[in-house]
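Entry 14. Structure prediction run on the chain below.
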Amino acid sequence: SVFGYSGAANNVAWLHDSADKDTLAGHMLAPRLFGSGFSNLASGFTRVYSVATAGEDKLNMGDSAADDVVTITPGLTTLVGGGILVQANGFVSQVVRSEQGGIDTVYLRASGSWNTVNMFDTFTGMSNSQANWFQRASSFANTLVELSGTGTDNSVYVSAPINGASQQMEF
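Output returned:
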């Protein structure tokens, strides 16, 4: 296991996966990539980049206490807020939670065909069974969903209004 700590500005950490199924978890101030036999923590860095190149890696991250902006596209998640940037590349399952406070905004974006969007009172999810990816954003103040391109067979399901939150969908 590797535990990296930084207290200075403009420090960068890179977290790389293994050949197995790994998980990037934690929150923006201390993301941790772990899997079979390893755990790498990057605490206090202003920029953290994580790269998933093998296996079916998962992202399960929380926000910061600041007003955060999260962008989730298939295979790329970017979290920005409070002077911190966390970027995760290549993860097939992407779950981000707004739980530390602030007025957070999430953008869920996809293009092409066979996308499914599910909007519930506490989370919004988007998936594509043909391309094998999944996105989920929980408890954000503002949720924006964008499906673009010339795709067909896209589905949107709205279960209940999100209490006190802003919803917007673009097709």
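The two ends are 44 Å apart (CA to CA).
Filed with the rest of this week's runs.
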